Amino acid sequence: MKFKLPFKKKQKPIVNTSHNNKEILSPSKIDFIRSIKDATHSPADLMVKSMLPNLTLIYINNLVNDKNLNDHIITNLQNATMETPATIKQIIAIAEVNISSQLEEAITAIINGNVLIHMEGYSQVVLANVSTRESRSLTTPENESQVIGAQVGFNESLSTNISLVRRYIMSPDLCNEEIKVGTRTKTSLNILYMNGIASDQMVNTLRQRINDLDVDALLDSAVLVEMIDDNTLSPFPQMLLTERPDRFCDGLLNGKLGVIVDGSSMAIVCPQSFIEFFESREDQNLRWQVATFVRLLRFSAIFLSVFLTPIYVGALTFHYEVIPQAFLVPLSESRALVPFPPVFEALLLEFIIELLREAGARLPTKIGQTIGIVGGIVIGTAAVQAGITSNILLIIVALSALASFTTPSYIMGNVIRLIRFPIIILAGFWGFYGIMLAFCFILVHLLRQSSLGAPYMAPFYPPRFQDMRDSLIRLPLPYTAKRPSSVRATDQEKYNPEVEHPKKS
Amino acid sequence: MKNSIQLSPKDMINAYLLFFVIHGAQVGVGIHGFQRVIYQDAKHDAWISVLLAGLATHIIAFCMIKTLEIYGSNDLYGIHQDVYGKRIGNFFNIVYILYCFVAFFSVLRNYIEVIQTWIFPDLATWFLSATLILITIYAFTGGLRVIVGVSFFSIVLALWILPLLFVPLKFSSIDSLFPILETNVGSILKGAQSMTFTIIGFEILQIIYPFVKDKENVRKHVHLGLLFTTFVYLFIMFVSLTYYSEGKLTKTIWATLSLFSFISFPFMERFEFVAVCFWMLIILPNLCLYLWAACRGAKRVVKISGKKFVWIFSLLIFIGTLFVQSRTQINTINTQFGHIAFYIIFVYPIFLLFVTMLKKKYTSQKEQK
Q1: For residue A15, what pLDDT is reported?
Q2: What is the DSSP string of A119-132?
Q3: pLDDT, tens digit, for every residue of B73-116?
Q4: Which helix (H) or strand (E) holds A188?
Q5: Which pTM does this prediction carry?
Q6: Which of A1, A321, A440 has the CB atom closest to B135's CB atom?
Q7: Minimum distance, in Å, between the CA of residue A192 and any CA atom of chain B
Q8: Which end of chain B, N or C, is surrounded by fewer C-beta atoms within 10 Å?
Q9: pLDDT at site B3
Q10: For this UniProt entry, which segments traverse the membrane (chain B) (predicted)?
Q11: First-last CA distance in chain B
């Protein structure tokens, strides 16, 4: 029983578009201009420029690069004489020039930033690509910052992102397939993988899933992930969204597949196992002892974040016996004034913390920080003084909130924070039994998931001891020379681990 | 041989996972208080009974694997149908399904009782049984891979409990074990028989066998799993015998949980509260595997979809837990189930091995003619 909603299985009736498709452009200048204007609904930025003796240039002003247009097209056209569209093609000093006589093709080209050059008496037009796309400059990755390592993140331009990837992997084996998704937006996305490493079967699966999509718009890669992952109903993400080119390339070199969507600064990496969401790219840049320590710290933080508040609630509501006597005194003192049951108290505080987080995320950066600090301190202190919550719970809730932010993947961090709430409620009603119920449920749930067909709990289940060397802990590089087997890589070995040890000097 | 099971490699598991399946299926609710039952028979030589029972599991597992190897890739249900013919074979299969049902029920009911006695006296039986059954169904519907995964994690995540038993070892005296072999052999053997309820579970091997990818390694990992179980039981029995004073064990129903009760950490006391709840993870593979085994059998006997069977099965179990309420009733079920299980698990496989071997000889002779 797989809980998978079919993402719009219904086949759309094929619309008869042959009437539009085959329409040939008119040789007459006036008819040509009218047909273009009709097809694009004569936007305000559609420029029609007539040139002597018999040329017409049509383009959308905001899509073309003015400098290229002036220097390489208009100047050249003015200085030369030409008889046919074919000669125009030769004169223009632009790399991408095509000739077409079909309306549909011309419209697509003009939308993509081409200039149409029409010659009176010919139905063919010259399509010269002088497009320009507005995009912001490269900045440091905001959501996945790290101390040691590259400080560049993806931006919203597809070509910039791919060039970033190509800068890391200079190999002809880096395959790049383009697919257009969205009947209205026609968003282009690229599937990237390493030929000879990535499993062909997985590439086919991913390609199939993307091709099967029947949506009208695709604005972000996060939406795409939700459409193509294995179990849409699970709160746990099954594909990694990253804005770090180095992490993306690390995935590709490990035999994973990457997808970059135009207009989105987050790239998709899949298949991804549960444990890999808690690994940071920085772990590879640190010495292995430090990396192991940081990873263990992070995992205990996740565990604390999920279970600390529920355990507090469960222990205080049902299992007083579990609390050591020495601790019972300060605990009861701090709770003496609180009029609510622990579960309500905990839910209230968690709610406040989530409010602060959400407010901090929505507000401009500078105000957001102030709100976070002032709100945290003011509300926290006031709540304790007013006797709504106890000091100790405040510490516990703050601790678990802090711990949840150690997750390197923000999306996984969100899930960690979300699943805390049902567990707190269960703990409030049924104590440790409720917590254990939630624990077993989550365990079974995680075991049932898969990521692009690969087991989600790898390398722990199915147990692969070789892969565990780079999971909870990270062993020195020679011990991690194999690629994770869950990605079913064609080439298992990254390198030959039996290198000669450098001589001691 | 006919009606053997053909599976795609995708549905199969590696042989080394059998270690976890066998151990996970054996350890369950029996471990909470098996000491008392055996102590009643074998007194302070109870550890010898445990050892003997462990030895018996090895012998039986050997017979089971032998029987299964004759058929190559078939489970107990298929073997029954082949050996006794369709009708009588199906009768045996139904008996076995009933056995799984009772085993599931007994595990569930015992665990519910432990929870109600130790932590939540007021928590309703129907609620506990409904939640546990729902989680079991959720794991079951994920397929065999998920069930085996649950067994794996239940063992790996529960391993930390075992070293905690060194804490009571501090207060124990080795003298309680001496003199060795004071009890007569008959009583020790009787004690070993009383281990049945605690040590069964490895019969799941007869059902899971066709699902194993590399069958040549089955033997090794099954015996390793059994060895580990025997070791765990022996260790717990040893700690209990040396820790409790003479005669105290006969009055302690859940001796293992009582052992936990004074383990304390700087941040936590009364460890048994955690242990009892944590035991849910340990009984989960028990429940899943018995449900799965019953479902496999039901599919063989009658044409029924897994989903339908699970709901019928769970409903019956749920109603059953509501009717069995008192401690005496549960105790009677445990004892009776232990007796029946002894014949089904420890006697019948030897008989089955003889029958299959005879049949094999008979058919091969026939073919030669």
Answers
A1: 52
A2: ETT-S-EEEEE-B-
A3: 888 999 999 888 888 999 999 999 999 999 999 999 999 999 99
A4: strand A187-194
A5: 0.91
A6: A440
A7: 27
A8: C
A9: 64
A10: 12-34, 46-68, 88-108, 120-140, 146-167, 188-212, 224-244, 273-293, 309-328, 340-358
A11: 18
Q: Which two tokens stand for residue A395?
A: 């510490």
Q: Are B124 and A433 in contact (CB under 8 A)?
A: no
**Does the predicted interface ipTM exceed a cut of 0.90?**
yes
CB proximity B146 to A under 8 Å: yes
Residues in chain A: 505
Where do the domains of chain A lie? 20-129, 158-272, 294-454
Task: Identify the three-state secondary structure at position A60.
Answer: strand
Is B131 an interface residue toward A (CB < 8 Å)? yes
pLDDT tens string A243-269: 999 999 999 999 999 999 999 999 999
**From B111, which residue of chain A is nearest by alpha-carbon distance?**
A433
Strand partners, A48: A58
Question: Is A437 close to B131, i.e. CB distance below 8 A?
Answer: yes
B361: distance to nearest CA of chain A, Å?
Answer: 40
Please give the Cα distance from A142 to A146 (Å, whole number): 9
Query: Hey, are the CB atoms on B273 and A461 less than 8 Å from each other?
Result: no
Task: With beta carbons under 8 A apart, name residues in chain B contacting A432.
Answer: 119, 273-274, 277
Q: Is there a cis peptide before residue B285, judged by omega within 30 degrees of 0?
A: no
pLDDT of residue B140: 94
Contact A117/A128 with Cβ under 8 angstroms?
yes
Residue A465 has pLDDT above 90, yes or no: no
Residue of A nearest to B135 (CA): A441
**DSSP class per residue in A270-323:** ES--GGGGG--THHHHS-HHHHHHHHHHHHHHHHHHHHHHHHHHHHHHT-GGGS
Cβ-defined contact of B120 to A430 (cutoff 8 Å): yes
Surface of A (430-449) touching B: CB under 8 A: 430-433, 435-437, 439-441, 443-445, 447-448
Phi–psi pair at A116, nearest 5 degrees: -95, 130
Tokens of A76: 């050249």
Distances in whole angstroms, Cα of residue A163 to Cα of each of A113, A144, A166, A176: 21, 20, 5, 12
